[in-house]
Amino acid sequence: MTRMTKNNQGKQGVENPTAGDICCYSLQTAPNLATVPAGSTIHYISTQQINHPGPTQYCPAKVPAGSSEARFDGSGAVWFKFFTTMPTIDKNKQLTWPGQSRWPLPSGPPLSSLTRPRGEKGSGGQCTRLTRNRHIFNGQRNRPRQRAGRQVPAPRGHIALHIAMQANKAQFYISCSQIKITGGGSGTPGPLVSLPGAYKSNDPGILVNLGAIQPTAYTPPGPPVWGA
User: Fold this and answer.
1) Are the C-beta atoms of residues 144 and 124 closer than 8 Å to each other?
2) Which residue has the higher pLDDT, 101 or 144?
3) Number of domains in the chain
């Protein structure tokens, strides 16, 4: 259900937030499709520990009519954000994000389940409603309750900000999963944005000196969380 990324043999993230790879960073699509009831919880387990500070964001996109989850490249103003993690201050007085420098066992509490933890931005716990239409999931937890669903390319992505005080030095680690949403309500997600297009190199959540701000001053890049 998760597409193979171009960095599957290494650790190189995307540094140019306006490049085409900011969408899914895909080398190839996935052979399978996961079916998920609207409003249920999805657990993501990373194969790499997240050591660097920065948010993790989740953004679904509806697959347009005439396409399929395996063919859709994520182009157009189709993406919306339904979850993003927010920082706190650690014992060393540095900004830290949920799950940073932790690697729990799969049997332990999920760090990236799609249910909004306390203190993280989202609406009602990863969000509202997904429609009965196709979507992909870009990088980013409790599936929204849109109208009942077809396929969703769903990207989730971590943005590493440890050297982000320099232009184009934030590192985006992205992947997309192919998901079919079933059930749901009548919500209309938004605002819808394009990837690339939603991020700029000088966005305050991308070009930022983490040592010079408080947690509440950090602004995640991209559109606001749907329903927040």
Assistant:
1) no
2) 101
3) 1
